């Protein structure tokens, strides 16, 4: 599930939203109220249940081959998403919806999000994203299921790969 040209997406488990109002997210580092959305490059980071902790890494032109092989793995493509075993059933069973918006009222915030400071209405009804595991497979994104995210995350953040961690506060406590 990706946005079309001139669109951004918002993913939600709620299929009944008809208008998105700017708000300050509880976990946001930004004080301004926004409607949040993502572009094509960042959409895969949201192919998860909302509360699911995930650690993600992908190659960039600055990635060293050794880091790529160590983190993503030989034959693993260019991107890896990791979750914990405790979230696998939710990944299999959650129904996720994509809301499409015209990109015009949005502006980039950093390199991972698009935001609007005005209310926005979806272009149409929300679309079921479908099988979230299949979304990863069809996009060529390695999906790794781990007992605990923290050892993987510690390696990712000191590597030369680009990365993102979402809802890590919901992960199991670090081991050892």
Structure in words:
This protein is α+β, with helices and mostly antiparallel strands and 176 residues long. The chain has one domain. It is built from 4 helices and 10 strands; from the N terminus they run βββαβαββββαβαβ. The longest helix has 8 residues.
SSE order, one letter for each helix or strand: EEEHEHEEEEHEHE
Strand content: 25-35%
Radius of gyration: 16 Å
**Rounded average pLDDT:** 94
Number of domains: 1
Extended strand count: 10
**Sequence of strands across the biggest β-sheet:** 9-4-3-10
Shape from CA axes? globular
Helical fraction equals 10-25%
Q: Give the termini distance in whole angstroms.
A: 38 Å
From the helix content, strand content and strand pairing, which structural class follows? alpha+beta
* Biggest sheet statistics: 4 strands, mixed
In terms of per-residue confidence, which ranges show pLDDT below 50 for 5 or more consecutive residues? Answer: none
Q: With helices defined by DSSP (H or I, 4 residues minimum), what is the helix count?
A: 4
Pfam families: DUF6886
InterPro entries: DUF6886 (IPR049253)
């Amino acid at each position: 599930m990706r946005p079309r040209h001139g669109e951004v997406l918002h993913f939600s488990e709620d299929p009944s939203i008809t208008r998105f109002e700017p708000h300050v997210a509880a976990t946001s580092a930004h004080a301004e109220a926004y409607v949040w959305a993502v572009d094509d490059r960042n959409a895969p980071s949201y192919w998860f249940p909302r509360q699911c902790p995930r650690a993600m890494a992908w190659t960039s032109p600055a990635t060293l081959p050794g880091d790529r092989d160590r983190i993503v793995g030989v034959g693993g493509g260019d991107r890896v998403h990791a979750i914990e075993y405790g979230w696998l059933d939710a990944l299999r069973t959650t129904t996720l919806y994509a809301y499409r918006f015209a990109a015009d009222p949005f502006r980039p915030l950093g390199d991972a999000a698009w935001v609007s400071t005005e209310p926005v209405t979806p272009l149409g009804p929300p679309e079921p994203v479908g099988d979230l595991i299949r979304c990863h497979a069809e996009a060529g994104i390695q999906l790794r299921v781990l007992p605990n995210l923290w050892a993987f995350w510690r390696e990712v953040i000191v590597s030369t790969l680009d990365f993102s961690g979402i809802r890590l506060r919901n992960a199991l406590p670090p081991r050892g």
